[in-house]
């Protein structure tokens, strides 16, 4: 079983690396890129940390990097307190979003949606058929909030941020903030970098723009497997939890039928059986949701 898992991971890695950049599958590839970029980040943090004293933005330390046992390299990887669980969905909105938000609300669960403006759909121009009729995606974004969920940023075009310039990062974040504001009247203060890709420069820019940066500690790899038996494996870390274990942040993607109709219902039952309280990202971290 273990060998089979390792083999499937290697296969997945080879497949992912062989794919051309910017394919849809590659864009959804959060976890593999996270592993690679995270290694790069560790070394770049050291080499660039003293190079910010000149240039256009001398006042670099605009927001302090968070610290704590739920933070790695200035990025939140889990909640800041025990007993809570943050269910998060990336890459939407898409055709399932309206009804997913509604279904979670009916179950008394508040989740967090890390959304793009132009990824699987163009939020500003596209529409979708839902159980409540045709809706624009701008209405879908507003609906997340109306259903008690939190809206967070995942950049405008699902851009991997490592290596981008300050101007490019500002464009991605500000364009997305403007769309969310136009749709729902709020500007997000929490973001998740696509593919978990960031470097010291992008973290600096994101902090300057007022964002708390979040990844995850439960990676279902749903975008890759579309298979519940494999997705369940990521949740096994919870079997070792004690009453003092800090709460979890689970990564899933709302753009797949299997995630919405297979993984999410199973995960909700599982997390409830562990007696965790579902919380939004801001409550999980103890930071502001909106700017
Ligand atoms: Zn993503």
From TrEMBL:
One of its GO terms (molecular function) is metal ion binding. Its cofactor is Co(2+). The keyword Metal-binding applies. Residues 45-65 are annotated as: Disordered. Residues 45-54 have a biased composition (Low complexity). One of its GO terms (biological process) is carbohydrate metabolic process. This is NodB homology domain-containing protein.
């Amino acid at each position: 079983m273990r060998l089979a898992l390792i083999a499937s991971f290697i296969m997945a890695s080879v497949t992912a690396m062989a794919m051309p950049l910017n394919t849809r599958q590659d864009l959804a590839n959060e976890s593999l890129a996270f592993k690679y970029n995270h290694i790069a980040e560790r070394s770049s943090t050291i080499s660039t940390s003293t190079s910010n004293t000149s240039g256009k933005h001398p006042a670099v330390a605009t927001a302090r990097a968070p610290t704590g046992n739920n933070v790695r390299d200035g990025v939140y990887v889990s909640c800041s307190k025990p007993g809570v669980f943050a269910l998060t969905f990336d890459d939407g909105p898409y055709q399932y979003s309206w009804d997913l938000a509604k279904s979670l609300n009916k179950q008394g669960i508040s989740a967090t949606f890390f959304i793009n403006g132009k990824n699987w759909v163009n939020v500003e121009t596209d529409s979708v058929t839902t159980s409540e009729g045709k809706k624009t995606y701008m209405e879908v974004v507003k609906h997340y909030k109306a259903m008690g969920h939190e809206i967070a940023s995942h950049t405008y075009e699902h851009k991997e941020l490592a290596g981008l310039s300050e101007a490019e990062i500002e464009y991605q974040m500000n364009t997305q903030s403007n769309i969310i504001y136009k749709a729902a009247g709020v500007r997000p203060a929490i973001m998740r970098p696509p593919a978990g890709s960031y470097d010291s420069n992008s973290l600096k820019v994101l902090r300057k723009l007022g964002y708390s940066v979040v990844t995850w500690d439960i990676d279902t790899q749903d975008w890759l497997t579309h298979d519940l038996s494999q997705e369940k494996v990521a949740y096994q870390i919870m079997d070792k939890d004690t009453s003092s274990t800090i709460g979890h942040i689970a990564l899933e993607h709302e753009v797949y039928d299997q995630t919405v109709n297979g993984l999410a219902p199973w995960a909700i039952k599982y997390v409830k059986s562990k007696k965790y309280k579902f919380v939004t990202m801001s409550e999980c971290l103890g930071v502001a949701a909106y700017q």
